[in-house]
């Protein structure tokens, strides 16, 4: 019993004692029980801290000390961070947190950062993943904007769509014929959409490059599915 008390008194302040004193815990020759202990599921048999007798490895969250070691096959170590006096240590995962380096800057695992105003990234397991912060939308030509173009705007991070007036001036020009294109135009277009109304005059649209500049644009034309039925004389007049 005295020997056990002597061991216990050294285990408690194990961090504060030099290695020579704690080495007194390991007596030679080893005196181990004939029958090894029966360990719970998930706890393998390992050698104690002295490398003498086989014991059940401590699992995650279980108490540990110099003799009662943690299951190293699961990456567990005896964590004394919450036990400044050397008591109350528990088995915890070893802090092997990896960071990532981007443009000479090192970020912690799980840290969110922006290498530029157009990207937001996250450091994860030594690498990083990024998502764009600028919208990657596509704008088709329209009658009021026949030539949309995406440009960098001074003072703003993300590019913006603008409508050049050059093509509009060409369309308003008095010339009857336009200069030939320097390349052959392969005509392409979608089918005309259904009429916008079920009766009477409406609009139908399609996207096509069948124009003098061979440029995709949204085209509209009048359509009429069927005439609207005439109001009977008995029906009230609605203004």
Question: What this model shows, in words?
Answer:
The protein is built from three helices and 13 strands, in the order H-H-E-E-E-E-E-E-E-E-E-E-E-H-E-E. 9% of the residues lie in helices and 26% in strands. The radius of gyration is 40 Å and the shape is elongated. The longest helix is centred in the first third of the chain and has 10 residues, at 2-11. The chain folds into four domains: 22-95, Omega-AgatoxinV (Irregular); 100-132, Complement Module, domain 1, CATH 2.10.70; 138-165, no CATH class; 188-227, Single Sheet (TSP-1 type 1 repeat). It has helices spanning 2-11, 19-22, 166-172, and strands at residues 45-47, 54-56, 76-79, 90-93, 100-102, 105-107, 112-116, 119-124, 127-132, 148-151, 160-163, 201-208, 217-224. Strands 7-8-9 form a three-stranded antiparallel β-sheet, with no helix packed on it. Strands 1-2 form a two-stranded antiparallel ribbon. By secondary structure, the chain is mostly beta strands.
State the CATH class of the largest domain: Few Secondary Structures
- The number of helical segments is 3
Strand order of the largest sheet: 7-8-9
* Mean pLDDT across every amino acid position: 75
Count of distinct structural domains: 4
Structural class: mainly beta
Quantity of strands, as a count: 13
**DSSP strand (E) fraction?**
25-35%
Cα shape: elongated
N to C succession of SSEs: HHEEEEEEEEEEEHEE
Helix content: under 10%
What's the alpha carbon Rg, rounded to whole Å? 40 Å
For the largest beta-sheet, the strand count, sense and barrel status come to: 3 strands, antiparallel
CATH topology of the largest domain: Omega-AgatoxinV
CATH architecture call of the largest domain: Irregular
Low-confidence blocks of residues: 1-19, 166-171, 173-177
**Straight-line N-to-C gap:** 108 Å
């Amino acid at each position: 019993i005295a020997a056990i008390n002597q061991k216990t008194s050294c285990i408690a302040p194990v961090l504060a004692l030099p290695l020579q004193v704690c080495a007194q815990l390991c007596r030679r020759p080893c005196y181990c029980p004939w029958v090894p202990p029966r360990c719970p599921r998930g706890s393998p048999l390992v050698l104690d801290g002295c490398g003498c007798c086989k014991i059940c490895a401590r699992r995650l969250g279980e108490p540990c000390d110099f003799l009662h070691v943690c299951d190293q096959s699961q990456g567990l170590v005896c964590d004394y961070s919450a036990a400044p006096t050397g008591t109350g240590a528990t088995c915890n995962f070893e802090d092997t947190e990896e960071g990532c380096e981007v443009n000479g800057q090192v970020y912690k695992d799980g840290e969110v950062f922006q290498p530029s105003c157009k990207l937001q990234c996250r450091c994860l397991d030594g690498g990083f993943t990024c998502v764009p912060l600028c919208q990657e939308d596509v704008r088709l030509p329209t009658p009021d904007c026949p030539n949309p173009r995406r440009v960098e705007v001074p003072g703003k991070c993300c590019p913006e769509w603008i409508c050049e007036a050059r093509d509009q001036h060409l369309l308003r020009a008095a010339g009857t014929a336009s200069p030939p294109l320097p390349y052959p135009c392969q005509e392409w277009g979608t089918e005309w959409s259904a009429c916008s109304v079920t009766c009477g005059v409406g609009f139908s649209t399609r996207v096509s490059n069948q124009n003098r500049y061979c440029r995709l644009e949204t085209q509209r034309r009048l359509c009429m599915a069927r005439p609207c039925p005439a109001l009977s004389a008995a029906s009230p007049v609605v203004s």
